[in-house]
Write a structure and sequence with these properties.
The structure is a homodimer of 262-residue chains. With 262 residues, chain A is of the alpha/beta class. Chain A has a single domain, classed as Aminopeptidase (3-Layer(aba) Sandwich). Helix content of chain A is 34%, strand content 18%. In chain A, the strands form 4 sheets. Chain A has a 7-stranded mixed sheet, sandwiched between helices. Chain A has a two-stranded antiparallel sheet with strand order 1-2. In chain A, strands 6-7 form a two-stranded antiparallel sheet. Chain A starts with a helix and ends with a helix.
């Protein structure tokens, strides 16, 4: 979508930003979701009053996450669903009634364009970004369930190595919501030598499990959220190397889960 | 929608059957949902091989539920969302991976048109009926959350007074899923003299809480499913009289809940 597509000239309304699909025809069980794939801020929201540094920092997106997700999609024959808009406009891993959906502050950055938004602007962003993404994802998950493909939902994120000035030792975080079956198997099959932790650097208690709760929870689908430290996937080559390490882990975890369900 | 709208002549695809809205502009907290409002079987599915008796019996819809929901919508200034298609084609209170979504048998009736459907037909019905209804409902609930209206989800159903030859004594059933806050307040404020029971004649353990789990659960919205014995709402006049009795109960339950949350 280009900037000129954003405004519907006839209606004066903001266009809808649906999900982007890759490898949609795949019949594999894993559906990869990358809610923070893009740092793009569409025209209606200008630069949100941010400097270029802030607009391309980890507060705007998860650097490396999309490249890693693409690598995993290819290696695992998995459908990939990703977002076209920065989380600074709407964070797709937050519900419309969570304060972090349109954050006024993220780590050390104030976000001026989000400082004083009212209910109408919240509803407009929800309708333009949150609903189309999650409804597109819901269409795909529903289709796969109806076809008997027994989908498994894996969200792919990255985190900054330094947070409020403190370095983080964890390299690979595996986060679960109410259903921890898949997360436990992923940790059990984590790549040799990676500093892997369950529910670090965040957990569902921090409100970060929204996509899992919305898209997998109601259907009892196995699910997990993967967090990679972004210095480990800083270039496309590094992201591909990480996909080489993680794909066998996910495949083994899924096989173990299927074994357990038999 | 008329039968001639059902088939998209150009694409040869089945059209989508979205949700029907009434009182959508209401700013009240309660969103009423009636998944079994209609006995209509659209043209692509003929009569599913059923007799007229079966097609208009309680297996096809919840008689009286829509009239009751309309009465409540008017008395409580509540938005009402209802379904345009019989649950015999797709039961909107079931997920695409639940067997009851497209049942081959319901109580004492076989449903020939559902006896031998494969994955493609299941996916087609899911895409045409399940996804549009629930995505339309999701749009509305998301909008209300973003506007700060703090929605509360109440689904309206009816049940047959005789089931497999056994009469049922319960008149008013209040069913909850994981969150029982609203259900407890509704039972506490139930109309004088009504035989009211929690989790009868069904409970979430029977797989009947799908809409609550899908639409309210992920957002932590208070929710409940109401079941009225259909002989008590058999005519429009009886349904309106029941709305007169139930509206104060729901209003009092919501007030008590809001009090408790302060």
């Amino acid at each position: 979508m280009t900037a000129s597509d954003v405004m519907d000239a006839t209606a004066g309304k903001i266009a809808a930003f649906g999900a982007v699909f890759e490898n949609r025809a795949s019949a594999g069980r894993i559906v990869l979701v990358c809610e923070h794939a893009s740092a793009h801020i569409p025209a209606p929201w200008g630069d949100l009053g941010l400097s270029g540094e802030a607009r391309f920092s980890h507060i705007a997106w998860d650097p490396g996450a999309l490249e890693l997700a693409r690598g995993l999609s290819q290696r695992l024959d998995a459908c990939l669903v990703h977002a076209p808009v920065s989380r600074l406009v709407y964070d797709l891993n937050r519900a419309p009634n969570q304060p972090g959906a349109m954050p006024a502050r993220s780590e050390v950055f104030d976000i001026p364009g989000n400082a004083a938004i009212g209910p109408e602007e919240r509803a407009a962003r929800t309708a333009a970004i949150y609903v189309p993404f999650h409804d597109d994802l819901h269409v795909e998950i529903s289709r796969r369930m109806a076809l008997g493909l027994a989908p498994v939902i894996v969200t792919i994120h990255s985190f900054t190595p330094v947070w409020y000035g403190q370095p983080r030792a964890v390299e690979f975080g595996v986060i679960h919501d109410a259903d921890d079956r898949l997360a436990r198997e992923i940790v059990a099959h984590a790549p040799e030598g990676m500093v892997t932790r369950m529910n670090e650097p965040y957990s569902a208690a921090d409100g970060v499990a929204h996509t899992l709760r919305l898209q997998a929870g109601p259907y009892g689908l196995p699910n997990a959220m993967l967090e990679l430290r972004n210095d480990l996937i800083a270039t496309p080559g590094m992201a591909m190397a990480m996909a080489d390490r993680l794909a066998p882990c996910l495949a083994a975890a899924l096989a173990a889960l299927s074994e357990g369900l038999r």
